[in-house]
Amino acid sequence: MRKIIALLVACCMVTALAGCSPEWKKKFIRKPKTTKKKMPRIYQVKKYDVKPSIQLYKKHYVYWKTWQDELVEVIGENTKKDKRCIEEIIGQLGDMQNILVAEKADKLETHIEEMREVADMIREGDLSPTTRDYLRRKLEREERYIKRDFGPNKMKNYIRESFDDDEGPSPVTVVVTSDTGKEVQVEGEK
User: Fold this and answer.
1) DSSP state at residue 181
2) Ramachandran sector of residue 146 (left: φ over 0; alpha: ψ -120 to 50; beta: rest)
3) How far apart, in whole angstroms, are the C-alpha atoms of residue 169 and residue 189?
4) Nearest CA among 125, 119, 136, 114 for reference residue 79
5) What is the mean predicted confidence (pLDDT) over 102-111?
6) How many Å is the Cα radius of gyration of the chain?
C-alpha cells in the first residue's frame, strides 16, 4: 500500500511540475495560419487594331441570326432564356450597326428599336399564349426585314473605314494589382 501511495504522490508531483508547461500548450493550441505575402501581379492589356470588315459583319450577322432563331423557337418556355436571347440579339444588331456607315446604321436603328420593344415585353413577365404568338410573329417579321435589307452580300459597300477617326499608335494598358487587392491602371504607348 505504501508503494501505491508513493507511486501516486510521485505521479502527482511529476504532473504538477510538468503541468501546463509551454510544450503541452503548444500541443493543444492551434497555430495561427501564416499568410504568404502576395506579390503584385502585372497584366498587360493591349488594344488590338480591329478594323471594320465584311468578315466581322458576317460574324455578327451569323450570331444575330442564331440568337434570333433560338428565341423564335423557345419563346415563352423559359424567361431567363428569353431575356438572354433578346439581349444577345440587341447586342449583335448594335455591333452590326457600329460596322456600317451612318446612313445604313440609321436604317438599322429602327429594327433595333423594334427589338427593344420586344425586350420590354419579355421583361414584363409571364407571357400569355396570345402575347407569345404576337412576339413570335413580330420576331419573324423583323428577321425577314433584316435579312432582306441588311444581308452581308448587300452590305459589302456600306462598311465603315475605321471605328474611330484616331489612327495613332495603339495604347497599352498595364493593370497592377497591389497587396491590398486594389487595381491600378497605367496607360502608355507601344
Assistant:
1) S
2) alpha
3) 7
4) 125
5) 93
6) 34
Inform me whether the pLDDT recorded for 180 exceeds 70: no
Give the whole-angstrom CA distance, residue 120 versus residue 140: 17
Per the prediction, the chain carries an average pLDDT of: 81
Positive or negative torsion for Cα 66, 70, 71, 72: positive
Q: Which three cell numbers stand for residue 148?
A: 432582306
- Rounded to the nearest angstrom, the gap between the alpha carbon of residue 12 and the centroid of all alpha carbons in its chain is 67
d(C-alpha 15, C-alpha 10), whole Å: 9
Give the cell for residue 106: 440609321
Query: What are the domain boundaries of the chain?
Result: 41-46+168-189, 54-158
Backbone phi, psi, residue 36, to 5°: -75, 140
